[in-house]
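User: Teach me something about this protein's shape.
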Amino acid sequence: MTTALPDQTVRSLRRSALDRQRTGRVPGLYAAVHRRGDVLWADGIGVVEVGAQRSPGPDDQFLIASN
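Assistant: First, the predicted structure itself:
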């Protein structure tokens, strides 16, 4: 279950994730914020793999240093 965060916080988290994706030069990433077992925010940025059209989700797995 996702708990609502203020819109400004959500925008800031998404901007931060987009920045990390760009500066890290990775095709995609999945980021989340949890508090006491509750998902406060989660978002998939980019694509799950090069050539795919699907954004990463909570069930996708990435190998460390996979690129």
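Now, about its shape. Strands lie at 28-35, 38-46. The longest helix spans residues 7-24. If you'd like, I can walk through any region in more detail.
User: That's plenty for now, thanks!
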